[in-house]
Amino acid sequence: MRFRRHREEADSRTGALMVAFALTVVALVAVVNLALALAWRLTLPVGAGYPRLFFETNTLVVLMLVLGGWWVESRRLRQGGAVVARWAGARVAADDILRERRLVNVVQEASIAARRRPPEAWVLPEDDSINAFVAGWRDEDTVIVVTRGALARLTRAELQGVVAHELGHLASGDTHRHMKLIGLVWGLQMVHGLGVRLMQPGEDGKRPAGTWIGLALRVSGYAGWLAGRLLQAAIARQREFHADAAAVQFTRQVDGLGGALRKIAGPQGRAATRDAVAPDASLACLSHLWIAEPRHARWSLASLLSTHPPLAERLRRLYGRTVSALPAPELPEQPDSPGWPGRSEMPALQDTLALPAAPSPERWAHAAGKAPEEAEAESRTSSHSQPAWPPWPDTVPSAALDDEGDDGGRRTR
Amino acid sequence: MEPLQLVILALVLALAIWALLTYNALVRRRNEIGNAFAQIDVQLKRRFDLVPNLVETASRYLQHERQTLEAVAQARAGAGRAADAARGHAGERQAMQALSAADGALGQLLGRLMVVVEAYPALKADARMAELSEELAHTENRIAFARQAFNDAVLDYNNAAQQAPANLVAGLFGFRAAAMLEATEQPAQREAPRVRF
After folding, report:
1. Contacts of residue B94 in chain A, CB cutoff 8 Å?
2. Do B196 and A367 touch (CB under 8 A)?
3. What is this structure's pTM?
4. pLDDT of B119
5. I need a labelling partner for A84 at 20 to 30 A (CA). Which of A122, A135, A261, A320 fits?
6. A53-75 burial: b if 16+ Cβ within 10 Å, else e
7. Smallest Cα–Cα separation from B69: which of B49, B53, B47, B45?
């Protein structure tokens, strides 16, 4: 996956959408003015001009509603990460449970790759689905919350991919951006709300005087609010693509995040998500930060409002082709073999090399003690052309030693 | 002042500001390299400290593997010396190569040790060994990611310093290209291990 190119593409699309969002607010002001002018015309006899400062007042009121609503909602969302995590029902990852210890390790590894301060690792113990989110406004109090299902069903590499995806969100300031956008959408909604209030019948049940104005506000407000929500969802989807590319950049492999997404798309992943505790309304504001929302498998009209692109499209961009879903059973609790350095996982030795299950110590010693020349000769005559073990380095390469070239005077051969 | 003089003054001012911003950006990126290198040092130290525990736990079961264990201990010592030598020379080609070599040797031997551990079910089932395995995997990953982060920092810096027109500022103030850490020094290291009996 050409992750740098994907990141740049997502960034430029995001920029364009943010400009569109700003234009939406401007358009809303214009439309409100237009609608109110129309309402004025309808309410009053022809020939009466507009009152003084009519348009200025309208503009000011709309901006106050939008920006005021934004400020109020932002304040509410700008909690520390731990507050949000506790809201969601999470707890700090425990050191003595191997899986949670592994999560803490994985978070630290991915933070090194992302060149960021590691967020605190929290666990959602009641949730069996595979999911994760980040929360927090300031660098010092960001947290990453991972479900118990993710810890149990994902391999170490896949967990690393998920964590790297969330760190991608943090690294590109998505948490801040989304909170601003949500606040703005809330503000846009306030214009609509004012229109509804103006249209409410009075105590005597008669239509109030400002009905037409209320209607104008309601219609334009709804249009602005809908446009805002569509744009916010489009921006959220671009950020998901960006975070996917960032995850590949940090882990330098596609199979980690790809494997996790395939498991989420699979039957067990989907079933677990259906049974998952539905987040309440206050948490819906966090929906864009979860890693997956598997309700929409393919593009559709309803998916335009979805904050996540369809899983199939995300997998296609990761792998460059269509891939199948994977089953996601709970894995047995044991540490993965560390395998070759630098990789977090190696399949069982027996499977890859078709060896007898447990060679006796004597055979191992014999094989290890063999001189490299014999091993070379053997490999040449065998039917597989596999290279032999690289020879034991009898000394550390001399360039790495200091001037004396002294390694304790002992050599292995 | 004539309009033409004003325009020229504005252009010169703009050029000066651009040069200043570019210089600062280059300094920031260069410092990022130093920071990323220090990270690697921290991770290497961590592995360095972990290896004696590992060797001690393994040696109880692996009497036949004395050669392996001794090789690991030696490689550890070599890696320590290389890290000391490389401190303060982040980004210089020779120091980076030496560090890569020593670090790679130790990593390769540890990997081989863990492959050997796979063959001893009693050792693998030992609880302490299980913890150490996870810690070792974690430490190896931290080293790998620290190296990757270092290389990414070097890439950002080289991109900034070598692309036009910033390369004019870079040349003027002595910002040279930095060297990346290479993963493998000998072709043999690139081949995956195959066990032969």
Report:
1. 399
2. yes
3. 0.72
4. 73
5. A261
6. eebeebbebbeebbeebbeebbe
7. B53
pLDDT of residue B6: 93
Is residue A7 less than 8 Å (CB to CB) from chain B? no
Report the alpha-carbon distance of residue A296 to residue A304 in Å, rounded.
Answer: 10
Put simply, the answer to whether A110 touches B145 (Cβ < 8 Å) is yes
pLDDT tens by residue, A237-259: 999 999 999 999 999 999 999 99
Contacts with B147 (C-beta within 8 Å, 6 or more apart), sequence order: B40, B181, B183
Instruction: Report d(CA B106, CA A372) in Å as an integer.
Output: 20
Contact A319, A205 (CB under 8 A): no
Query: Above 90 in pLDDT, residue A167?
Result: yes
Q: Write the DSSP symbol of residue B88.
A: T
The contacts of residue B30 (CB under 8 Å, 6+ apart) are: B157, B175, B178
Q: Could you read off the pLDDT of A351-409 as tens digits, one per residue?
A: 333 333 333 333 333 444 444 444 444 434 433 332 222 332 333 332 332 333 333 33
Mean pLDDT of A198-227: 78
Residue of B101, B134, B144 lying closest to A399 (CB–CB)? B101
Asked whether the beta carbons of residue B111 and residue A341 sit closer than 8 angstroms, the reply is yes
C-beta atoms of B71 and A401 within 8 A? no
Q: Which of A186-190, A282-286, A352-356, B190-194 has maximum average pLDDT?
A: A186-190
Measure CB to CB from residue A252 to each of B68, B110, B148 and give the nearest one.
B148
Neighbouring residues of A269: CB distance < 8 A, sequence distance ≥ 6: A129, A130, A153, A263, A294, A325, A328
Interface contact flag, A109 B110, Cβ < 8 Å: no
Q: Which chain B residues are Cβ-neighbours of A379 within 8 angstroms?
A: 196
